[in-house]
Amino acid sequence: MDVKQEYLRISLTDKCNYRCKYCLPNGNINSIENNKFLKIEEYFELAKIFNALIGLKKIRLTGGEPLLRKGLNKLVQMLSTLDPKPEISITTNGHYLSEKINDLIISGIDNINISIDSLDSSKFKKTTGNGNLQKVLESLKKAQKLGFSNVKINTVVTNTNFNEIPKFIDFAKKHEVSLRFIELMSFSSTSDYHKNEFISAKDIEKKLTELLPKENNTRESKLSPAVYRKINKSKKEIGLIAAASDPGCHKCTRLRISCDGKLFVCLYQNKGIDLKHELRNKNIGNLQEMIERAIKNKRTYNPLKTKEETWMSLSQIGG
Ligand code: SAM
């Protein structure tokens, strides 16, 4: 891989309090036992090693639901001391964010992404299993009240919410937030949902072109497979991530660490490289070699490009 690897996504847990139909519809069935999780200090040790080896531009904390993890603020504080310091971001379903955002900001979080798949309470509940839209919207309000403006919304587009695209764009304009529409990806455990609900990025793009004229105002993201349009004159943008049909493997800068300390160079990789053993034995030289080798041999495992088996769900590897 010629592309510089500079974006580390760290999963803090594979557990989630939501049951999104495309991710964890039946809950934490095959989940990893908590006693196998990396400790907060161990995540930091690994981040330090990655940063020294490759110079990270960005670290994203994800899961599962990262706000469920004890020690989250401590980790954010520790990561903020990295030198040079990468951007520290988090992706959350937003359910507990209004209670936790103040401490997260004080700890040094730079960016927060909140997932919202419907602006209609009953549809939201249906898609997320047991989600509470009001609670999530309160979190966004709280962020704004605290003057924290680096918030983005993630919206996975399906047959259920396709007709809400105009409403989402109005919402983004009204609340002055950037929003990314994400194409639904298929995983082994949710393939039936995918069959019934998939809307292609092409169709989403067509809709966006109708609603937001494309001329001169799109840009491609360097660190994620997203294309953006500005909303009027504001700096906020609407993005489209063709996660399934154009996952951007050729420009992928991402590395992932699962909550039990495995390194994955691709979202669709089934078997990660165990870093925890060497980390616990303090074999830093071996760890460095393992990471360098993994990066050198990085390739895509995307089932559309290879014939490999897909992952059970994004929550397992850290979405
Ligand atoms: N619990 C957090 C959340 O809800 O944002 C973080 C983990 S979640 C796996 C991260 C992101 O992955 C969310 O924005 C979610 O919508 C997205 N995601 C999960 N499964 C997906 C799928 N099958 N296709 C597209 N996006 C998916």
Question: Briefly, what is this?
Answer:
By secondary structure, the protein is α/β, with parallel strands linked by helices. The chain contains 11 helices and 12 strands. The structure holds S-adenosylmethionine.
Q: What do these coordinates show?
A:
It is a single chain. The chain is α/β, with parallel strands linked by helices. It has a single domain, classed as TIM Barrel, CATH 3.20.20.70. Helix content is 33%, strand content 18%. The chain has 11 helices and 12 strands. A 12-stranded mixed beta sheet has the order 7-8-9-6-5-4-3-2-1-10-11-12. α1 runs parallel beside α2, α2 packs parallel to α3 and α3 runs parallel beside α5. It is globular. The model has no long low-confidence stretch (mean pLDDT 92). It binds S-adenosylmethionine. The site of S-adenosylmethionine has 20 residues, from β3, β5 and α11.
Helicity range: 25-40%
What is the class in the CATH system?
Alpha Beta
> What is the CATH architecture assignment?
Alpha-Beta Barrel
* Attached small molecules: S-adenosylmethionine
Low-confidence stretches: none
Largest sheet composition:
12 strands, mixed
Number of helices: 11
Give the percentage of residues in beta strands. 15-25%
Number of strands: 12
Spatial order of the strands in the main sheet? 7-8-9-6-5-4-3-2-1-10-11-12
Total number of distinct structural domains: 1
Order of helices and strands: EHEHEHEHHEHEHHEEEEEEHHH
